[in-house]
Amino acid sequence: MADLERHAIAVLVDNEPGVLARVIGLFSGRGYNIESLTVAEVDRTNRLSRITIVTSGTRMIIEQIKAQLSRLVPVHRVHDLTDEGPFVEREMALIKVMGKGETRIESLRLADIFRARVVDSTTESFVFEMTGSSEKLNAFITLMEPLGLVEVSRTGAVAISRGAASF
Amino acid sequence: MSAEPLSGAEIVIRALVDQGVDVVFGYPGGAVLPIYDALFKQNALRHILVRHEQGAVHAAEGYARSTGRVGVVLVTSGPGATNAVTGLTDALMDSVPIVCLTGQVPTHLIGNDAFQEADTTGITRPCTKHNYLVKDVRELARMLHEAFYVAKSGRPGPVVVDLPKDILFAPGPYSEPEQGHHKSYRPQLQPDPDRVVEAVEMIGAAKRPLFYGGGGLINSGSEACARFAELVRLTDAPCTLTLMGLGAFPAADPHFLGMVGMHGTYEANLAMHDCDLMIAVGSRFDDRVTGRLNAFSPGSSKIHIDIDPSSINKNVRVNLPIIGDVGAALSAILGAWPKSSRRTAGAERAEWWRTIDGWRARDCLRYDRSRRDLIKPQYAIERLYALTREHDVYITTEVGQHQMWAAQFFKFDEPYHWMTSGGLGTMGYGLPAAIGVQIAHPEALVVDIAGEASILMNIQEMSTAAQYRLPVKVFILNNQYMGMVRQWQELLHGGRYSESYTAALPDFVKLAEAFGAVGLRVERPAEVDSAISEMLAVDRAVILDVAVDPAENCFPMIPSGAAHNEMLLGPEDEAEKPVSEEGMVLV
Fold it and tell me: Which one of A21, A67, A72 has the shortest CB-CB distance to B309?
């Protein structure tokens, strides 16, 4: 088996009904992995949405994924950010932690180190908001587990290329 | 824009006419009544009433594949649409341009589980090239024109347009088809010139080249097939074709090695295994062609010309992909071919042809011709071929052994004359497809080479043939078994013929008569010729029930999980080369 590669792929699509189902159906129908998928309209004038997909597969599968995405009718452009040079990848998470006493203070201390913000608090809970790479989010969530972690909500990754070039 | 608004149903008719449609295959129902009413009031479009919506799509496929035009289907909502799904999937797998109009419940009822409601765009999303749900009558004309553009551009395929009933009544503007670019779907047609030059060099330097053509040649057009033949002859290289490609290169030409693949010829498969350069043109390295992938043509460089970038490197890694219309790419290669160069690689090419002639000498399609009491299915097709030489003959098939024998023993010299379900393998394809072909070619001889099991899957379409007085000929090779299932059970499952024997077959002669057609039956080899002649002499639909050897197997065969050089040539090989356990789990 060839090595698995992790790729962030940006797909610019018409913002029309069913377009997300086409993309997701392609992945499930052909057995490709989706690590995360995010979508939102990015161009209101032309009604274009940008889908960011993080996927993994062999080089042959990654090439197939891009070719299959490209031939969907409402797809305008497909960019493999991983292949096309350096890029920034960010994800946001909301993390709810319950605790009292020392564990509560410890969670606040770690949140400070990770630059997580407190966006809600009661006497026995915090909701932290955190932005960063998926790895950083994973690390913080792992640290919160023994400190009363009860709920996590994550956006999945969004990504954009570094430098002045754009598409 | 036209001055006075039309109703949605009138817009549908107008758009079809402006797209050059002359015939629609369909079946009415509640949700499409406004379109049927509009059809009633006009004469430009002919409607062919089928007996099942699956038949409508296959008929449109037969029409499309025998003309190169878009086939059009009209069905109602709910069951009308779901019945069409098999046909749509078939068209997707075999790249057939189809526009299928489906009725839908009124927009305000969508999602309410209304009578005859189905989520048609949801159901057909994975089995169409694209689909549309029209929610605003102002979008209707544009979406219809776009559906035709998408169906026929690039790699062709089926497109569904779902039409809620209120949209069909609503007044709306009509707009003519636009020439110009689609905003996002623009397939690459012209090949990269640098790659063309590279291809010329690779072909020129090859010692043992092989052309491997597929259905993409036929989709590209007669011109592309002619360019393909020109290049094959110019380079004096052998050529093989896939099941879908038959007819793209003349079978009578000595450069043709026969069909490739699981039931392809010995010489075609060994040439594929041993070539040093494979030039794949409009073909997709299907598993029925490649056999075991890790043993597929191990010593060759590969050029792959295809209009669909997702076909490149999907199953087999190639050295030189050329994306574009195969006709344009072949013309570019011919244009770049050096005028002064040596035509062939001389001694090396002669050696390659000597090797191939050695394989040809095995006579891999031979069968036992000594039986006087039993009709061999191969013999029946050979005689059908011989006795129809004077006709303009179109062949459709169902799916199974008879299909493979038809591909092996019926020889096609031109494109558009062979219609078979290749990718999906849809039993029941042949009769409705034959009806579509006959509608497109009223004067031609159209024969559905069938099996007795497959034909029963869409036998109701005999009634359509009767209604329109279509003289289609159904040539049943009746071995009383689902022959290919029986063959696999013999090879892979110890001869346990689980459910592959049909114990209660109808009397096909009486069945034909019940449908207003002519029924004939033949049981002895000596009577085959006269039965075929009688079938050809009748100016009506005919079912000719040919009782053939029930035990005959289809050879050559590359068992699943085997390589091209491990093929079984006949019953004597069966015992010597048992199928591997890995092969058993493959389809």
Answer: A67
CATH architecture of B377-556: 3-Layer(aba) Sandwich (3.40)
**Digit-coded pLDDT (tens) for B318-352:** 999 999 999 999 999 999 998 766 555 688 999 99
Structure ipTM over 0.90, yes or no: yes
**Domain range B6-172, its CATH number among 1.20.1200.10, 3.30.930.10, 3.40.50.970, 1.10.10.10:** 3.40.50.970
The dihedral through the CA atoms of B524, B530, B535, B536 has a sign that is positive
Residue A68, in any domain of the structure: yes
A106, A60 in Cβ contact below 8 A? no
**Residue A71 Cα, gap to closest chain B Cα (Å):** 7
CB-CB contact of B165 with B106 (8 Å): yes
Q: Which helix (H) or strand (E) holds A37?
A: strand A36-43
Is the separation of the CB atoms in B455 and B430 below 8 Å?
A: yes
Nearest to B121 among A18, A72, A73 (CB): A18
Q: How many CA atoms lie within 13 A of B250 on its CB side?
A: 8
> What residue ranges in B295-377 does DSSP mark as E strands?
301-306, 320-323
Residue B545 CA to residue B554 CA, distance in Å, equals 20
Residue A136's contacts (CB-CB under 8 Å, 6 or more residues apart) are A114, A130
Last residue of a domain, one of A80, A98, A127: A80
Predicted pLDDT at B111: 96
CA-nearest of B515, B525, B494, B482 to B371 is B525
Give yes or no: residues A10 and A72 share one domain. Answer: yes
Neighbours of B260 (CB within 10 A): 31
What is the C-alpha radius of gyration for chain A, rounded to an integer number of angstroms? 19
The yes-or-no answer on residue B484 being catalytic is yes
Residue B401 near residue B554, CB atoms below 8 Å: yes
Helix axes B401-409, B377-387, angle to 10 degrees: 40
Residue A114 inside a domain? The answer is: yes
For the stretch B297-323, pLDDT in tens is: 999 999 999 999 999 999 999 999 999
Residue type, B131: N
Tell me whether residue B53 is one of the annotated catalytic residues: yes
Task: Indicate the residue among A32, A62, A80 that finishes a domain.
Answer: A80
Residue for token digits 């038949």? B55
Residue-range definition of the domain harbouring residue A139: 88-159
Instruction: Mark whether A76 and A106 lie in a shared domain.
Output: no
The reply to whether B278 belongs to the active site is: no
Same domain, yes or no: A119 and A72: no
Tally the C-alpha atoms within 13 A of residue B231's C-alpha that lie toward its C-beta. Answer: 32
What are A54's strand-pairing partners? A8, A36
Same domain, A119 and A153: yes
- pTM of the predicted model, to two decimals? 0.96
The fourth-level CATH superfamily of domain B193-360 is TPP-binding domain (3.40.50.1220)
Taking an 8 Å cut-off on Cβ atoms, the answer to whether A73 and B185 are in contact is yes
* Rounded Cα gap, residues B216 and B208, in angstroms: 24
> Residue A29: its chain B contacts at CB < 8 A?
126
Same fold, B6-172 and B377-556: yes
Same domain, A97 and A54: no
Q: What is the largest CA-CA distance in chain A?
A: 57
Instruction: State the pLDDT at residue B344.
Output: 55
Cis peptide before B556 (omega within 30 of 0): yes
Residue A99 shares a structural domain with residue A68: no
In a domain, A55, yes or no: yes
Nearest residue to B39 via CA among B80, B48, B30, B465: B48
